[in-house]
Structure formats: structure tokens, C-alpha cells
Amino acid sequence: MANPSKAKGDRAEREAVAFLIEQSPPLVVPRAMRKLGAGRKEDTGDLHVFTDVAIQVRNLALKDIGLALRSAATDAVAQARNGDLDYALGLVPYPRARSGTVRWIASWLTSPADLGDEAVEFKMVSKALDWVRDDEGPYGYLTRPRQHRVAHLTGTGTPVMVAPYEAWLARYVLTRTGTPPVFGRLTTAGRVGVA
């Protein structure tokens, strides 16, 4: 009988590959895929999607999502080091996210490009995720487009940057092309494409 946790992780990795291909087509390597043998001692990430990014996908229950965000980011750094890759990205699916809302949360320790004063500090995971996921701007914060909605999650544990995937992608595109990305319109599925 298959391990249910492994099956859940495998599903998340397959979904992440499809999502990244859809969101970032000009940057994705040909034949983007899950890496075989992920989890080994010299692991270089779960996915082979970008030439220079180690990607760690973590899929835990909502009650453990803070742990997932922090551990995905820190593990991705170690994996980038193992693979001599420039960037490290943690990806965590938000459980039971409705269509059109932020499903994939990016977490990282070192940004691909300067954040300036864009990051908003949060000590509580739940508050950070409420803000990062809400396209309407909850709790009196200014509404920001997804690519500019970055939370600096402090509090207990390793401090990490947490944002919709589009925010990490905007910084990554800047490092690859030298110019900020032009994001397409939201599709009916709520996804944004890079033009």
C-alpha cells in the first residue's frame, strides 16, 4: 500500500509543475518535470522547471502551513547549494483554495531581486497568509497587486519572505531579463501569465 503522505506530496509536485509551466512559459526549460530521486542526500530540489532555481514543494495540512513555508524555503537553499544553482524557492499549496484565489504560496530566504521597502512584516502565519492571499486587501492594508504583495514572516522560527507566486516570479523575471515583467490579465481560473 502506498504511503498517503508521499502520494499527497507527489500530487502537489505534479500540480506545481503544471502551474509553473502555465504561469511562466518563456522561462521554463523544455520538458519541465518532477525530479526523480528527490529527497536523496545531495537533493537539488523537487522540480526541474527553471535552469537556475532549486524548488522545494511542501504540502502539509493548514494547521502546519507555517512549518511548510519555513522548511520549504530553508530546504530549497540547501538544495540550491547542492546543485550550484543561483536561486531557491519554496512552494506551498494553500489547502482547499477556491478557484481564482491565491493557491500557490512562494517562500524564500533571499530574493532574486531587491524588495526595497515592499515587504510588510507579520509575526503570525495566519495574518500573513490572510494578507498574501486576499486580492481585496484585508485588515485595513492597502490592496496591492499579487506581484507586489510580499510578507516578511518573522515570529517563531526562521524568518522568510512569503508571497503569491507572482511576487517571486516578478523578481525572478527581473534578474533574467533586466526589466520588470508585464503580467497578463487574470484568466477565468485566476491565473496570471507573463507577457
Task: Tell me what the structure shows.
The strands form 2 sheets. Strands 3-4-5-8-7-6 form a 6-stranded mixed β-sheet, with helices on both faces. A two-stranded antiparallel ribbon has the order 1-2. Strand 6 (120-122), helix 3 and strand 7 form a beta-alpha-beta unit. The chain has one domain. The relative contact order is 0.14. Helix content is 31%, strand content 16%. It is globular. The chain has 195 residues and is an alpha/beta fold. The model is unreliable at 184-195 (pLDDT under 50).
Strands, count:
8
Which outline best applies? globular
Average pLDDT reading: 84
* Rg (C-alpha, Å): 16 Å
Distance between the termini: 44 Å
Helicity, in percent? Answer: 25-40%
Order of helices and strands: HEEEHEEEHEEH
Helical stretch tally: 4
Question: Concise description?
Answer:
The protein is α/β, with parallel strands linked by helices and 195 residues long. The protein is built from four helices and eight strands, in the order H-E-E-E-H-E-E-E-H-E-E-H. The protein has helices at residues 4-23, 65-83, 125-133, 165-177; strands at 33-34, 47-48, 53-57, 87-93, 104-108, 120-122, 151-153, 160-164.
